[in-house]
Specification:
The complex is a heterotrimer of chains A (250), B (193) and C (456). With 250 residues, chain A is mostly helical. In chain A, 74% of the residues lie in helices and 4% in strands. In chain A, strand 1 and strand 2 form a beta hairpin. In chain A, helix 6 runs antiparallel to helix 7. The chains are: A mainly alpha (250), B mainly alpha (193), C alpha/beta (456). Chain A: It comes from Sporosarcina quadrami.
Chain lengths: 250, 193, 456
């Protein structure tokens, strides 16, 4: 049971989460996103063994972002009608507005909750393999993505080495974000030049091992779909229906 | 559509995405928390950096689909690198890529000058803004605030993605490492005329 | 026996270049033969190999004339990928020939390409790992393995296709000689077991020790002279003092001195801390201890990592030195002074890097693996460069695995093992000591030709 989310088919999980997000975009009451967010938390508590410390670390910036949404909505919203419910610093906060502000910030939380659920319970390689096996993603693209992923440590190491070499030459001034953006170009150039070389070599190596980009008939790692996916999808849909219905009751 | 693509071109898009993924991770994460307090407008002026991959790849490879495929791959790579925004990013990537692609398609994939690249940046800005408008619930904001956000994003798309993307590729072209890609063939053709 | 590869009057050129890479070339390889193709850089070795596995002409839109038959069938008649399981390839760059994370996934990727039914995959993977002695690596993450291990994995990936021909694209050029030699003897056993046809391109035959039956020389340019043992250019005065340099994690306290004009080689097994020591000395990574002077020059294995401007001249002038023109002249860079530093040859890049360091007043140059992946001509160029600069009073500390090169160039040798400096030795005494050499995974150099013989 604790591994249900981890064992779910990544494509099904991806689709369900996307459906949830698109549906949420139509709701401007605070309850719907809040219920989804809490629901997502409960689902993870029951059906996953994620590291909650990591979850918290990732969630903090989203909570701050939700706060950013909250006050900007209060200040920059279009709608200025309805009864006054709250007054701060001579600013009258009206009920409709407060609801909107809460709705948008909870939406940020709900989106992040759904995204984190996916990110923390899905193996990257399985996700790509599943996109290829269930969603008919072209092997040419799927394996190119995997090559890129596999190069990550090599390229990260290169990035550090170039940074060090530039520091030796006194070329990295600390500064504001604009000078950093301009400096980034100097690091980008050797990295991209290296990436061009590597991508040709990797592509040749793949072709030399018989890779043609055609659809394949057999897979070593089969990412399957089973009853579990049906149950979990039903669970998410129920959560979504309850949250949507709540808007008319509360 | 994919038949006409060489494998090395698709792998190139993926590796470029990883390079930019690393840049995003290591450069832009510091100080993010403060940006959060400012609300949805905080990132608008720098938004163009997300479109730069599609413009760079199209400018180099020059095949229909280069912008949308590269932007989608970039988003998928971001997810693999552990970006917490996750699945939402993939859809956003497709939409942004379509925006840039639209500009290139409108010019029949024949012109790749600075104006077309800036137009692609603007296209990506507008498409991504419409998507963000819907998903982020911008309807509740006042028209002035929304227009300000849109204006900032368009400027960023044109300058960072369009002008910046061209600068990066032109720099790369000068290093002589793009031999064997469409961009060098046309560069050489131009020189002969 | 039948011909497996047959070139009849083959010519080849790249689409955007006038120069013909292969000019009316004819040769054939019979089943079971072991053939090596040699020639200097630019002679078309790689092109030739890529024609054999059909990567070219498609991938570069190259123009090919003449007839190239693979297994008695015209190469252009094969569908893409069709012939690749019969003619498998191991490439030279250990970092850039994989696409999956783990060894098992990589082998499975290859089998999937051939549409092998899933039930047979496990058995085939186990069998090839058994054959190649790599069973323990089945679940290893490829990018965490060493260069030598990666090349073995690449070979296993080629063999799992049960090919008839194995193409080798300078497979040991990125390995140190010790590892390279082990790879060759491992390959030799495999070849005997499987009776493979082997076609290799290689610029250095000294480590292969009669592995090949036949050599095809692509372009006989004037053979580069063997490196001669250089005369010491030590100028008496001390120039580099290193006292107890160490860091918190791996590097144990290291102390040594170098003299002005001295050329020292730093050697030791992979992972012994050589690169870490270099970086600690030039303060690229935090370290304790003292280094005098505090500004040292550093040339990484890829010199272009240092470059930040758009022309060779600007690159050397970047630090604000006044002797830019003199340096351009002394390093033979005048004719590329306006070129982009990324666009010049590898040897020139190294000159630019050294020029930039000297212009910065960094008179002691630390070089990280400048010999790796270099052919004889470029090694000889490197040798000349170091020799000349050392005579002008520059001090060198060079990390290299190449003991042939080291024995030709070094006044002294610093040996390292497990983060610790074994000591600084007179070069001659290291070559004489079997114990020191084996303890540090080094091969005894065959000996540089004495100066007089070279001039004869």
């Amino acid at each position: 049971m604790k591994s249900a989310l981890h064992n779910m088919n990544p494509s099904v999980k991806f689709l369900i989460i996307t459906i949830c997000m698109f549906t949420l975009a139509f709701f401007f009451n605070p309850w719907t996103p809040l219920i989804v967010w809490i629901g997502v938390l409960l689902v993870q508590l029951l059906f996953s063994r994620i590291n909650w410390k990591v979850w918290t670390l990732f969630m903090i910036p989203f909570v701050i972002m939700a706060f950013g949404y909250f006050w900007t909505t209060l200040v920059f919203a279009e709608e200025k009608t309805g009864p006054v419910v709250w007054t701060i610093l001579n600013m009258e906060i009206r009920e409709v507005l407060l609801n909107h502000a809460l709705a948008l910030s909870f939406r940020v939380l709900a989106f992040s909750g759904l995204s984190l659920l996916f990110a923390l319970t899905t193996k990257p390689v399985s996700f790509i393999l599943s996109l290829m096996q269930q969603m008919k993603l072209s092997p040419k693209i799927a394996y190119s993505i995997l090559v890129g992923y596999q190069f990550l440590p090599v390229l990260k190491d290169e990035f550090v080495q170039i940074q060090q070499a530039h520091r030796l030459r006194g070329a990295t001034q600390k500064g504001n974000i604009i000078t950093r953006l301009l400096n980034m170009r100097k690091i980008l150039l050797p990295m991209l030049a290296g990436a061009v070389r590597k991508s040709e070599r990797a592509a040749f190596a793949m072709e030399a091992r018989g890779f043609t980009g055609e659809k394949r008939t057999s897979f070593y790692h089969i990412i399957g779909i089973g009853k579990l996916d049906v149950y979990m999808a039903a669970l998410f849909l129920m959560l979504l229906i309850v949250s949507c219905a709540s808007s008319s009751f509360i | 559509m994919l038949k006409s693509w060489k494998l090395k071109e698709v792998v190139l898009m993926s590796l470029f995405s990883v390079v930019f993924g690393i840049i995003y991770l290591l450069f832009l994460h510091a100080g993010n928390i403060w940006a959060g307090f400012i609300g949805p407008i905080a990132y608008e002026w720098i938004f163009g950096i997300w479109f730069i991959v599609s413009i760079i790849c199209m400018y180099i490879i020059r095949k229909p689909g280069a912008a949308v495929i590269s932007e989608t791959i970039a988003a998928a790579v971001e997810v693999l690198l552990g970006n917490a925004v996750g699945p939402r990013l993939i859809l956003a990537g497709v939409v942004q890529g379509l925006g840039a692609e639209a500009a290139f398609a409108a010019t029949g994939y024949k012109k790749f000058n600075i104006w077309v690249l800036m137009l692609a940046g603007i296209g990506a800005s507008i498409f991504s803004f419409v998507y963000g408008y819907f998903m982020g619930g911008f309807t509740v904001f006042s028209t002035g605030y929304v227009l300000l956000m849109l204006g900032l994003r368009i400027m960023s798309g044109a300058l960072i993605a369009g002008v910046g993307g061209k600068a990066v590729v032109d720099g790369l072209l000068a290093t002589g490492s793009l031999r064997g890609y469409a961009i060098t063939r046309t560069a050489k053709g131009d020189a002969r005329v | 026996m039948s011909d497996v590869i047959q070139f009849i009057d083959v010519s080849f050129r790249f689409p955007d270049e006038e120069k013909v890479i292969l000019d009316h070339l004819s040769f054939s390889v019979k089943a079971g033969e072991k053939v090596v193709i040699t020639g200097p850089s630019g002679s078309g070795k790689t092109t030739l190999l890529y024609l054999c596995n059909r990567l070219y002409p498609e991938n570069c839109d190259g123009v090919m004339n003449g007839s190239l038959k693979l297994f008695d069938k015209e190469s252009s008649k094969y569908a893409p990928g069709e012939v690749n399981h019969k003619i498998a390839t191991v490439f030279q760059d250990p970092d850039a020939q994989f696409c999956m994370m783990t060894v098992e996934e990589e082998l499975a990727f290859t089998l999937e390409n051939l549409n092998i039914p899933r039930e047979e995959m496990d058995g085939k993977i186990a069998a090839v790992l058994e054959l190649t002695g790599l069973t323990d690596f089945r679940n290893a993450v490829i990018q965490q393995l060493s260069g030598g291990e990666k090349q073995r994995i690449a070979t296993a990936c080629a063999l799992i296709m049960e090919p008839e021909v194995l193409l080798l694209d300078e497979p040991i050029s990125h390995l140190d000689p010790y590892t390279g030699k082990k790879f060759i003897s491992w390959l030799d056993e495999l070849q005997q077991e499987r009776a493979l046809t082997v076609v290799a391109i290689e610029h250095r035959l000294d480590l292969w020790d009669g592995f090949f039956d036949r050599e095809i020389v692509l372009e006989s340019t004037n053979r580069v002279n063997e490196l001669m043992t250089r005369e010491s250019s030590i100028q008496g005065s001390q120039s580099l003092y290193v006292e107890a340099v160490h860091n918190d994690s791996f590097l144990k306290p290291v102390s040594f001195h170098l003299q002005k004009g001295e050329v020292a080689v730093l050697a030791g097994p992979n992972g012994s801390g050589k690169s870490t020591l270099l970086k600690a000395l030039c303060q690229l990574i935090p370290a304790k201890g003292t280094v005098t002077p505090d500004r040292l020059g550093y040339v990484p294995q890829s010199p272009e990592f240092l470059f930040i401007t758009k022309s060779v001249r600007d690159e050397i002038a970047f630090g604000g030195g006044t002797e830019v023109e003199t340096l351009l002249e002394r390093l033979y860079l005048q004719n590329v002074a306006e070129a982009h530093p990324f666009a010049v040859s590898h040897g020139q890049k190294r000159r630019v890097a050294i020029g930039a360091m000297l212009a910065d007043g960094r008179e002691i140059i630390l070089m990280d693996e400048p010999t790796s992946g270099q052919d004889a001509a470029s090694l000889s160029e490197l040798y000349e460069l170091i020799d000349e600069r050392a005579r002008q009073g520059t001090t060198f500390l060079i990390v290299t695995h190449d003991m042939e090169f080291a024995s030709a160039i070094a006044d002294s040798v610093l040996l390292m093992d497990e983060g610790q400096l074994t000591g600084k030795f007179n070069a001659e005494s290291v070559w004489a000591s079997e114990d020191l050499l084996t303890a540090h995974h080094l091969l005894k150099p065959k000996g540089g030709t004495p100066r007089e013989v070279c001039f004869a």
